Amino acid sequence: MMDFRNGSTVTAFILVGFEQSSPSTQALFFALFLVLYSLAMAMNSLIIFITWTDPRLNSPMYFFLGHVSFLDVCFITTTIPQMLIHLVVKNHTVSFASCLTQMYLVFGVGVAECILLAFMAYDRYVAICHPLSYAQIMSQQVCVRLVGTAWFFGLINGILLDYMTFHGPFCRDNHIENFFCEAPIVITLSCGDTQFSMKVIFADAIVVLLSPMVLIVVSYVPILASILGRTPSSGRGKTFSTCASHLTVVVFFYTSAMLSYMNPRSTHGPDKDKPFSLFYTIITPMCNPIIYSSRNKEMKGAMVRALGRTSLAQAVSV
After folding, report:
1. How open is the CA angle 208-210-215, to the nearest 5 degrees?
2. 276-279-284-285 Cα dihedral, nearest 10 degrees
3. pLDDT tier at 238, thresholds 50, 70, 90
4. 25-29: average pLDDT
5. 182 with 103: CB under 8 angstroms?
6. Which whole number is the average pLDDT over 115-127?
7. CA-to-CA distance for 145 and 18, rounded, in angstroms?
8. pTM, entire model
9. For the chain, which domains are there?
10. How far apart are CA 3 and CA 195, in angstroms?
C-alpha cells in the first residue's frame, strides 16, 4: 500500500480491529456483536414502525423519537456490518473513498442525533411548562423544520470534518487501530499539519456537543422546578418518568462522544479507543429503545399492539 523509501502516498487503509485476538476470541466477538446488532436493529425498527403508524403516538415527542431511532439504525449500519465481516475474513483493507464516506456518515448522523436530542429537551419544556400553548408552538410544521435542521447541520458538519481529516496527504502508516475509520486516529496518519486538524476537530466537538447541552440544561431547569412543584396526584411520576428516559439517553450519548472526541490525544490508545467506539456505535443505539420503552406505558402498549397485529397476520396467512 505504501513505500517509505520512495514516499508514495497511501491509497487504502487497513482496519486493525480485533485481528490481534485469537480465532476463538474473534468468533466470540462475532457472535456477541451480531446478537447486539440484531437486537439494536430490531428494537429501533420497531420504534420507527410504531411511532410512524400508531395513531395513539401522534405527538411531537414520538415524532422525534422515531427519527432518533432512524438515526441509530443509520449509525450502526455504517460501522457494525463492516466490523462483523472483518471478524470473519482476513482482508481488512478499505479504500480511501470508503473510509472517507464512512467517516462522513458517522459524523453527519452523530451530529444530527446530538442536535435532535436537544430539540427533544425543548419539546419536553414546552409540553410541561406551557401545556396550553403546546399544540401551537410544537406544530407539525415546526417539528419537521427542527428535524430538517438537525439533518442539515449534521451533514454540513460532516463535510467540514471530512475535509479537515483528509485534506492532507497520507504517507505514513496505513493501519487504523480501530474497527472503523475514526477521525482522531486517521488524522495521526496524515503527513499534513495534524495539530491544526486536531484542534479544529476538538473545537468543533466543543461547539457541537456543548451547545446542545446548554439547550438541554436550560430546558430542564424549569422542567424540574415544575415537576417538583406539583403534587403526586397531578402526574408528577409520569412526567418525571418521561424526562428521566430522555436524560438517561442524553447521558449515554454525550458521555461516549466526549470521551472519544474531547479528550487529549495523549490519553488515547487502541485499548481505550475501541471500548469507547464500541460504546457509542452499538451499545448506545441498542440501549436507547430499551430506555424509552421500559419507562413509558404508551410505548409498551404500542409495542404490544404492533406485535399482536404481526402475530395475527402470521396466523391468518398460515
Report:
1. 100
2. 110
3. low
4. 91
5. yes
6. 92
7. 41
8. 0.84
9. 12-317 (1.20.1070.10)
10. 24
